[in-house]
Specification:
Keywords: Hydrolase. The protein is an alpha+beta fold. α1 packs across α2. It is globular. The longest helix has 23 residues.
């Protein structure tokens, strides 16, 4: 199933992470397991930045409760890969993160993940400052052209 057009646009995502491909990532063709790792790395950098923006120490942790990927085109070693990341939805103790993998302006895949904020081994309500930081990073759902 083809994702909505706005999910494929660079302008949708407020935060970008450059990913260095590695030769071992399947001898030129990057496989799906490596691409999931790219999304995970970008999500980790994004949440670390959000905690810092919110002034919330990372005493708690985040766990990925669900993650869905759609692969739209191949990715190859030595291409410049960037993962765009933004917030799709904010809950009480979780949020849904939307991501897209780009090579130049071309979207090669998308990912949506639900992450849960944990403190004392339990889901923890978002602090007001963390909620505000998440809301500042909501994706920009673009109108169709």
């Amino acid at each position: 199933m083809r994702p909505p057009a706005w999910r494929l646009e660079r302008a949708t995502y407020p935060y970008f992470t450059r990913i260095q491909t590695r030769y071992r990532d399947e001898l030129l063709h990057i496989n799906n397991v490596s691409i999931v790792g790219y999304y995970d790395e970008a999500r980790w950098r994004f949440t670390r930045e959000l905690f810092a923006q919110a002034g919330v120490p990372m005493r708690g942790r985040t766990v990925t409760a669900e993650s869905r990927q759609s692969y739209l085109a191949e990715v190859f070693h030595m291409e410049n890969v960037e993962v765009g990341t933004g917030v799709l939805r904010v809950g009480n103790s979780s949020c849904e993160i939307g991501q897209a993998l780009f090579v130049g302006a071309e979207c090669r895949g998308i990912c949506a993940s639900t992450i849960v904020f944990i403190a004392d081994d339990r889901p923890a309500p978002l602090t007001a400052s963390l909620r505000a930081a998440l809301e500042e990073m909501l994706v920009r759902q673009l109108e169709p052209a």
